[in-house]
Structures are given as structure tokens and as C-alpha cells.
Design brief:
The chain is of the alpha/beta class and 253 residues long. The protein has one domain: TIM Barrel. The radius of gyration is 17 Å and the shape is globular. The structure holds phosphoenolpyruvate. Phosphoenolpyruvate (PEP) binds next to β8.
Length: 253
């Protein structure tokens, strides 16, 4: 039985004050939600991670980074390593978010290095995959998602990938208000789970959590998570409002 997982990606939003306020509101609002019923995480901007982690305090909410670099240390100006993120108390990292793929230009090869580095360094990667609108219109969704999952996990053993969460995030649904229908989400999630069973084994595929992301909101969260293979949500815009994010978490319980 997979425990649901709800995560908030704050992207390049909030400031020193509002990031702490948001973390405190989410922490206090979720204090009654049992840790065993749902996993929760927030992904603030790098610079606010230490104060957000402090504000989350003894809550059941984990913190994660939106990005990092795969090398351990050295002459990589501007980059942040896995060990630095571990050092300040991060648990999760996003790998291959669509904005990093399509705005910053990250490739499957780089994303694969990041997934491998995160696991080796003791962070839990959330590998994001998903098709562009043109790719969906051209019936290429399965092909794109299959390629991104295969390439993102290339070379990783079954033992290693048990640390991974997959997030299916159709690019056309991210930040657009155009949520995938529960059926569209289920079809893609089922595809990913079958692919994992083929790449590894059926037992492992049953254990790996697959989140949906793309304009998830309090009013569509329950229906999306009611799908058999939708194990939680990666939430962007709605995670910047504590009440909305808490309502989405409650829909998972
Ligand atoms: C995201 O950034 O991963 C995301 C799903 O954003 P939004 O919920 O705003 O579509």
C-alpha cells in the first residue's frame, strides 16, 4: 500500500518573510494530520531553505530543493551540491522539472546524472516527466513519458530506484489552470507503472509513488488522487497559499 505524498514546489516565489510565514502556517495547519497517513514536503527557493527548515521545526513536513548539481564539489560557480543540501536538512530534490527542461534546457542525460547523484548522496529524488501540448496533440505522450522515465533512470539498479518518486507533470497543465482529467492522469501513471515493472519488477513498480502535477487545486485534488495509480500531487501555484495547500493535503488522507 503506497502512502500518499503531497509536495509543494514554490518555484522562484516568496521572500525572506513570506517563506517563513508560509512554512509556519503549513506546519501548524498540518499538525493534526498523522505522519503515517500522508508524506508532505515543500520545495522553497535555495536561499530560504535554512529558515524554512527551521520554521517547519518538529512538523512532519520535509524540505527539498528544486535543483542541484551532480558533482560533489569543486569549480562549479553558482551550483549547489547534494552534500550541501543534506548538510542543511533537506530530504528531497526535484530532478528534471519541466521548467528546468524547457526553460533552462536540461537534457535527459543531465537529469539522469542528477538522479544518480541524489541517490548516492542520500537525498530522495522526485523525477519529473511529462509531454508538451504539441506532443500530446501528436499522440506522442506515451513515447515522450517512456523516454524520459527510461533515460532519467538509466543505469540505476532496482535497489537504488526504490528511493525515487516519479512526478507525471504534463507541461501544458503546469501553471496554466488546464488540469489533466483524472482519466488522462491515470492513463499516464499506469503507463509509468507498467514501464517500471518491465524495467525492474512488478513488486518494485507497485511500491514506487507516482505523483501528478499540473494545476492541482483543492477542488480537483480528491478526484485526481482517487485514481488507482495517482499516489499524490506535486503542487505549484496552489502550494503558495497555506489554506489551499492544506486542503490538498487533507484530500490525500
Ligand atoms: C509544478 O510546478 O510542478 C506545478 C505542478 O505547478 P502548478 O501546480 O502551478 O501547475
Amino acid at each position: 500500500m503506497r502512502k500518499p505524498f503531497v509536495a509543494g514546489n514554490w518555484k522562484m516565489n516568496t521572500d525572506n518573510h513570506s517563506s517563513v510565514n508560509l512554512a509556519q502556517s503549513i506546519a501548524s495547519g498540518s499538525s493534526e494530520i498523522a505522519e503515517k497517513s500522508v508524506s508532505m514536503a515543500v520545495f522553497p527557493p535555495f536561499v530560504y531553505l535554512p529558515s524554512v527548515i527551521k520554521a517547519l521545526n518538529v512538523s512532519n513536513i520535509a524540505a527539498g530543493a528544486q535543483d542541484f548539481y551532480f558533482e560533489q564539489n569543486g569549480a562549479f560557480t553558482g551550483e549547489i551540491s547534494v552534500s550541501m543540501l543534506k548538510d542543511i536538512g533537506c530530504t528531497f530534490v526535484l530532478c528534471g522539472h519541466s521548467e528546468r527542461r524547457h526553460v533552462i534546457g536540461e537534457t535527459d542525460e543531465l537529469i539522469n546524472k542528477k538522479v544518480a547523484a541524489a541517490i548516492s548522496g542520500g537525498l530522495l529524488p522526485v523525477l519529473c516527466v511529462g509531454e508538451l501540448l504539441d506532443e500530446r496533440k501528436a499522440s506522442q505522450t506515451n513515447e515522450v513519458v517512456t523516454r524520459q522515465v527510461k533515460n532519467g533512470l538509466a543505469g540505476l539498479s532496482a535497489e537504488k530506484i526504490s528511493a525515487v518518486t516519479i512526478a507525471y507533470e504534463p507541461v501544458w497543465a503546469i501553471g496554466t489552470g488546464l488540469t489533466a482529467t483524472p482519466q488522462q492522469a491515470q492513463e499516464a501513471h499506469e503507463l509509468v507503472r507498467k514501464l517500471l515493472a518491465k524495467m525492474y519488477d512488478a513488486r518494485l513498480a507497485e511500491e514506487i509513488r507516482i505523483l501528478y502535477g499540473g494545476s492541482a487545486k483543492p477542488d480537483n485534488a480528491a478526484e485526481l488522487m482517487a485514481q488507482q495509480d495517482v499516489d499524490g500531487l506535486l503542487v505549484g501555484g496552489a502550494s503558495l497559499n497555506a489554506d489551499d495547500f492544506l486542503a490538498i493535503i487533507r484530500a490525500a488522507v
